[in-house]
Amino acid sequence: MRYSSIPSAQLVVQHCKAKKIKNIVISPGSRNAPLTIDFSEDPYFKCFSVVDERSAAFFALGIAQQLHEPVAVVCTSGSALLNYYPAVAEAFYSGIPLVVISADRPVYKIDVGDGQTIRQDNVFDRHIGYSANLKQDIAHAVERVGKYKPEWLSEGKKEDAQQETQDFNDKELNISLNMALKKKLPVHINVPFEEPLYDTISEPSVKALIIPAKKKDKFKTSDIQSYADVWNSSAKKMVLVGVNPPNAVEQQFLDTLANDPSVILLTETTSNLHHPNFFTSIDSIVAPIEKSSEPSLLFTKLQPQILLTFGGLVVSKKIKAFLREYKPEHHWHIDELKAFNTFFCLTHHFKTDANSFFGKFINLIRPKKGDYFAYWNERRLQYELKRMDYMNQIAFSDMLAFDWILKSIPENYNVQLANSSTVRYAQLFNLDPSLKIFCNRGTSGIDGSTSTAVGSAIYAKTPTLLITGDLSFFYDSNGLWNNYIRPDFRIIVINNNGGGIFRILPGQEETENFATFFETAHNKNVEHLSAQFGFEYMLVNGVTSLNDRLKDFYEKSEKPKILEVHTPRFINNKILLGYFDFISSKSLT
Predict the structure, then answer these.
(1) Are 308 and 237 in contact (CB under 8 A)?
(2) In total, how many domains does the chain have?
(3) CATH code at position 276
(4) Do 342 and 455 fall within a single domain?
(5) Same-domain check for residues 370 and 415
(6) How many CA atoms lie within 13 A of 521 on its CB side?
(7) Same domain, yes or no, for 264 and 366?
(8) pLDDT digits (tens, 9 = 90+) for 497-542
(9) Model's pTM, two decimal places?
(10) Model confidence over 538-574: pLDDT tens digits?
(11) Which one of 191, 194, 314, 577 is CB 3.0 to 4.6 Å from 242, fit for a cystine?
């Protein structure tokens, strides 16, 4: 094996190895050569080369999302680092331990006019768990150090100064990587390197001082009985679950909640929780109330005394608006690390995971008689029947395409949903319980859906399907620019020739300005991109052709596949809005 001759590069790699960070996504560059050499030469690490730093960061985020462990990204100096920011922000709000390692120029070369040189320290500021700004080695390129920073060598021995540098860097590396491991947050490690960058040695010249991450504190249950007493005395309890990893909560706990007459459990597509009694389309419950003749009366009837939440961020704007206006007396959130006050009424944060909490809580609670579940479940069954009627009468559109697509997905697939319209349409339908659903809901951006899906598929045990809109797909087309796409990877692009979601938002109007600057209308298709990146390509523009294509779309192949579904730009919004009108008519009494 070869090792970089630069001590700080060796330290970074030794710390990553000690903390079992195995997956390293590297974007090519010169300044990061010392890191690239040490990571790629060590067979312990699985290294990936992804040119576009924005794609690389989301690619790494997808791996971390799949494995539930830190993944590192490595880049050169300058603006390359800034391209990581969208994924860093997503990781910050989604609780994903992305480890950003950036090579930097020597401090004395910053702001003097050198190329590829910016102020890299603390560049992620308020969207990072920790920023470790390592010190430049004294022992490397001593002549240059003496020329540009003679004060670093003016006091004491060179060896003592180098040891102080190593001690500082060890400390910063331990803090940052332990933060990623314990707090599930992204961290940034900035490493300044002086030239020469490519010199290697046959044995390490330094040995890292490793401080293990402390074990998590056990959940204290001393006062849980008082919360169980409140629960048992309440006739209306609502459980709301946001983004949640597949198979993260024991089914026995969910079954107990689902069979309590005083509980309604609302899930989203991204919750990955299933039971026949769960309310899986939140907006289909809330929208008919909004459109009723007595919304205040019905919202009061739905208003819970206790709101219990767990999981990540919630997609539905309607449930947020409802709970912010009709606040519960108690809002309890379950999460090991954080609790967002989404509904402005948070009263308690149980700092543990859902299984640990329910493992104690379920034994203390009892079902309570009442009609809370029965009343709203009857309405749920009504809208499900009406949805079937509506789907049988509408023209080919986004909504009808999603209905057929979601029904077609084979069992046990990993399904990556892009943001904007895609995830919202998926919320309206029941998905097979065997599917594992993912979506970047931390910042809800369209900028990295494809790259995340490609990264997550690397270690997925079953095939992956990405469902995306046209703008999201084109925006992140560089997500396909790598050599790691599996033959069983599938993409369905819903192409309605623009940002269709803007046609259902307030302010929509048929003007040239709206089409240009909001909807961003276009006439592009994905055929040429499919050919460029080595995908099999299929095109459909109607129900019959869609059904025919879906029959063989998931069949084994030597190449990955893209299915492009063209839908009519001008009727999609009318059909979606018409759906809520249709299920609202005479559905609530």
Answers:
(1) yes
(2) 3
(3) 3.40.50.1220
(4) no
(5) no
(6) 11
(7) yes
(8) 776 666 566 666 667 776 666 667 788 899 999 999 999 999 999 8
(9) 0.95
(10) 999 988 899 999 999 999 999 999 999 999 977 888 9
(11) 314
